[in-house]
Amino acid sequence: MKVLVTGAAGFIGFHVSRYLCERGDIVVGIDNLNDYYDPALKQARLEQLSLLDGFSFQKIDIVDSSGLENLFSIEEFDRVVHLAAQAGVRYSLENPQAYIDANLVGFTNILECCRHHKIQHLVYASSSSVYGANTAMPFSIHHNVDHPVSLYAATKKANELMAHTYSHLFRLPTTGLRFFTVYGPWGRPDMAMFLFTKAILEGKPIQVFNQGKMRRDFTYIDDIVEGVVRVLDRVAAPNLDWSSEQPDSATSSAPYRLYNIGNNNPVELMTLIETIEKALGKTAKKEMLPIQPGDVPATYADVDDLIRDVGFKPETSIETGVGRFVEWYMQHYLR
């Protein structure tokens, strides 16, 4: 297949692009290489991808509708994996416009290009943050998610609604993936795993929010990628049993699907810190703080639908995943 991967210089986009190339697909990656976090890390990822057969890269911002349209016209993609977005919950309190531009305007541009160029399947990143104020655990794709607690979460919920509209009106097959706290080698510097590792090695205090009582369904990057590609290969189809009188939010009479991709095993923040300390052989200095606006106290993914439909369940343990991340960090930054 020829696959467009948006956000290819990002954490998940890099790993998905590499996986697709290594199995023989042709991958065109795009990214705007913004400075939300260190662009040098994005460039280093692209350098790795440039070594692979079948990969090419263009610097394009998804907000640029004419640039996207030109790309789709020339390349004639079969499928699209849309991972480009303005990420981060806390940053959405500081710069809301960035989320409107990338996550709403940019996503509209992707939908329009997929519609007009008869894309076989659009797979796009949603987020566990859409569960917002929900406390029923584990989080199920069949639950109502109408109470986001950050603008980032609201834009991701909006993406799911926008995708459904295009699936309904234009029969564009779309699948949204709600990712749960992704971590691993080449990870984002604004995420806890990276921040904690860096601070501990430098002897600086780490900020521990919600007094360490935060629980997250940490999901290792290889598991995320396996889920993304399996879903990409299974084109979204209508649910023939869908009822308008008792509508299921995860499926539709249109070719539309939603899935959680999470480890199905929440880990307390203090356990994560202890695991990093053990991998580094150093003890963290901790600054205990209250929960931050926009954060939720816990996430926990129900992955039954993912298992049923694509035969996959993330299972990498936190000990294995943290060990691999720390090994990469030491090689990349301390060599």
List the SSEs and their pairings.
Layout: E1 2-6, H1 11-22, E2 26-31, H2 39-49, E3 55-59, H3 65-75, E4 79-82, H4 91-94, H5 96-116, E5 121-127, H6 151-170, E6 174-179, E7 182-183, H7 192-202, E8 205-208, E9 215-216, E10 219-220, H8 221-233, E11 256-261, E12 267-268, H9 269-280, E13 285-288, H10 304-310, H11 318-333
Helix pairs in contact: 1-2, 1-8, 3-5, 5-6, 7-9, 9-11
Largest sheet: 7 strands, parallel
Fraction of residues in H or I helices: 40-55%
Strand order of the largest sheet: 3-2-1-4-5-6-11
Which regions have little confidence, pLDDT < 50, spanning 5+ residues? none
Return the string of H and E elements: EHEHEHEHHEHEEHEEEHEEHEHH
Query: How far is the first residue's CA from the last residue's CA?
Result: 37 Å
The SS-based structural class is: alpha/beta
Strand elements, count: 13
What is the arithmetic mean of pLDDT? 96
The DSSP helix count reads: 11
Q: What shape does the CA trace take?
A: globular
Q: Rg, please? A: 19 Å
Notes on the protein architecture:
This protein has 335 residues and is an alpha/beta fold. The chain contains eleven helices and 13 strands. It has helices at residues 11-22, 39-49, 65-75, 91-94, 96-116, 151-170, 192-202, 221-233, 269-280, 304-310, 318-333; strands spanning 2-6, 26-31, 55-59, 79-82, 121-127, 174-179, 182-183, 205-208, 215-216, 219-220, 256-261, 267-268, 285-288. The strands form four sheets. Strands 3-2-1-4-5-6-11 form a seven-stranded parallel β-sheet, sandwiched between helices. The protein has a two-stranded parallel sheet with strand order 7-10. A two-stranded parallel ribbon has the order 8-13.
